[in-house]
């Protein structure tokens, strides 16, 4: 990640709150602003930019065999490196549930102050999170959620349903702008057995239905370039005409584009998912079918580390009025297009 992007992501959690005098609502009497019933203003976390108590953060995530997961780990390390009062103890990524549980237990025995865990399987890692919380070690549960809120202090992750909604809304707008009244809209989903895929597909379907459209041909891949290519080839072979296509995941999107290019199809627009650099570059060049991608950004890992630091220092978020870190934070799935792609290039990840 570039230094400007780190600075931008740290702003909310690291910058000093605006002076109270600039935020207090004007009084209706002649009393001074600070007298009597003063309104609560942002500033619960104090000056979080200044170095504070040393905090050791344990970090555990799945194996970096996917561009998005690799970016999660890189972002976490980069954010920790930006704080001189933070030490990060990161385990080797693994897709073996039992091994990840063992790694978390090792972190618990290594004097960490806070844990950040992106579980390979949220249900299977719930007990590990609960064990940490029972020992008084707060847990930031990243993205894949534990079965019980008692297993984490704060959850931060993406909004899968709204990701589908925003993809559907963008496609619907484009179809209406082109005066296409009955478009053929395809979907290349991820793994159908995962709740996140189901939520994305439901949001997509709901958004299109509200606009008077429907989802047409649909296939499910496995979040890999290989399966993305194979499944998209099947979809294209069975449908000689498309008007739009939504692909859930930009990593598998490498294969999706390969399949499209192999048969030289260009009559439709394509929307990606997550926000990889190569998809953003395709959007910026505007030379192919890719016109947008809907964010599900791994920058959430940077925020997770910032939150873990504040928990370890017993601070709140500087720009919030509350003195405590929120129990949950849901990131927003912005739609990246040619018009705004430069604003988001700094959080694009390598597929």
Overall description:
- The protein is of the alpha/beta class and 351 residues long.
- It has 2 domains: 3-117 and 298-320, Rossmann fold; 160-295, Response regulator (Rossmann fold, 3-Layer(aba) Sandwich).
- It is 41% helix and 15% strand.
- The protein has 12 helices and 12 strands.
- The chain has helices spanning 3-14, 20-23, 67-81, 97-108, 122-134, 160-177, 195-210, 225-238, 250-262, 277-285, 300-312, 341-344; strands at 55-60, 86-90, 114-117, 139-142, 154-157, 185-189, 218-220, 244-247, 269-274, 290-295, 328-330, 335-336.
- The chain has a 6-stranded parallel β-sheet, sandwiched between helices. It has a 6-stranded mixed β-sheet with strand order 7-6-8-9-10-12, sandwiched between helices.
- Helix 3 packs parallel to helix 11 (300-312).
- The protein is elongated, with a radius of gyration of 22 Å.
- It starts with a helix and ends in a 7-residue tail after the last helix.
Helix tally equals: 12
Q: Could you name the ranges where pLDDT drops below 50 across 5 or more consecutive residues?
A: 1-37
How far apart are the first and last residues' alpha carbons, in Å?
14 Å
- What's the story with the biggest beta sheet? 6 strands, parallel
Helix/strand/pairing class, anyone? alpha/beta
Family: Belongs to the bacterial solute-binding protein 2 family.
Protein name: Sugar ABC transporter substrate-binding protein
Keywords: Signal
Subcellular location: Cell envelope
């Amino acid at each position: 990640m570039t230094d400007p992007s780190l600075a931008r992501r740290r702003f909310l959690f690291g910058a000093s709150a605006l002076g109270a005098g600039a935020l207090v609502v004007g009084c209706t009497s002649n009393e001074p602003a600070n007298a009597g019933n003063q309104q609560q203003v942002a500033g619960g976390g104090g000056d979080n930019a200044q170095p504070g108590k040393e905090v050791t953060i344990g970090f555990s995530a799945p194996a970096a065999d996917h561009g998005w997961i690799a970016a999660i780990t890189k972002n976490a390390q980069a954010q920790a490196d930006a704080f001189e009062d933070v030490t990060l103890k990161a385990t080797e990524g693994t897709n073996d549930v039992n091994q990840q549980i063992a790694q978390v237990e090792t972190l618990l025995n290594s004097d960490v102050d806070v844990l950040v865990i992106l579980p390979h399987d949220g249900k299977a890692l719930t007990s590990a999170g609960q064990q940490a919380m029972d020992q008084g070690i707060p847990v930031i549960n990243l993205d894949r959620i534990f079965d019980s809120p008692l297993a984490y202090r704060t959850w931060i992750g993406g909004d899968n349903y709204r990701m589908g909604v925003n993809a559907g809304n963008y496609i619907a707008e484009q179809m209406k702008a082109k005066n296409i009244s009955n478009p053929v809209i395809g979907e290349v989903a991820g793994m159908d057995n995962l709740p996140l895929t189901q939520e994305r597909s439901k949001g997509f379907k709901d958004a299109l239905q509200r606009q008077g459209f429907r989802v047409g041909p649909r296939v499910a891949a496995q979040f890999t370039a290989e399966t993305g290519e194979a499944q998209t080839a099947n979809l294209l072979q069975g449908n000689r005409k498309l008007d739009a296509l939504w692909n859930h995941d930009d990593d598998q999107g490498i294969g999706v584009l390969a399949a499209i290019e192999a048969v030289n199809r260009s009559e439709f627009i394509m929307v990606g998912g997550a926000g990889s650099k190569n998809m953003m570059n395709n959007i910026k060049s505007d030379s192919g079918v890719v016109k947008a991608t809907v964010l599900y950004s791994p920058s959430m890992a940077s925020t997770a580390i910032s939150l873990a630091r504040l928990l370890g220092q017993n601070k709140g978020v500087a720009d919030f009025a509350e003195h405590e870190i929120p129990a949950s934070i849901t990131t927003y799935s912005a739609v990246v297009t040619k018009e705004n792609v430069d604003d988001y290039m700094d959080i694009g990840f390598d597929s």
